[in-house]
Amino acid sequence: MTFVVTESCIRCKYTDCVDVCPTDAFREGPNFLVIAPDDCIDCGVCVPECPVQAIYAGEDVPPDQQDFTALNAELAQQWKPITRTKPALPDADAWAAVAAKRDLLQR
Ligand code: SF4
Ligand code: F3S
Question: From the CA of 56, how far away is ligand 1's center (Å)?
């Protein structure tokens, strides 16, 4: 089992999660991060760092977000590692209040 980034990260990308990860498991896309399942050691320290509660343990991913588990694995093979926290995307705070935004995910 691995940890998974879900929909609320889209268009926010606060990246507070990145600095605490002991294995540099995060990968970065244009407006979303994913966790590489092969690098995640299931420590859970990234979960409370995310201001929009986007990160879940695999077994706790909400029913309507289950597809994000496979999506994290798929995109982790395509995107490059991000190892340091950086500024959030413009308008991140406005997008944090938007629940349905999966169609806005850029690959
Ligand atoms: Fe990194 Fe731990 Fe989060 Fe996995 S659970 S992505 S190892 S901080
Ligand atoms: Fe995304 Fe939350 Fe990390 S918004 S980039 S999962 S801190």
Answer: 10
To the question of pTM greater than 0.90 for the whole model, the response is: yes
Instruction: State which ligand 1 atom lies nearest to the alpha carbon of 41.
Output: 7
Give pLDDT tens digits for 27-59: 999 999 999 999 999 999 999 999 999 999 999
Contact 71 CB / ligand 2 (< 6 Å): no
- Whole-angstrom Cα distance, residue 16 to residue 60? 21
CA distance 79 to 57: 21
What are all long-range contacts of 84-90, with beta carbons under 8 Å and residues at least 24 apart? 84/18, 84/19, 85/15, 85/16, 85/18, 85/19, 86/15, 86/18, 87/15, 88/12, 88/13, 88/14, 88/15, 89/11, 89/12, 89/13, 89/31
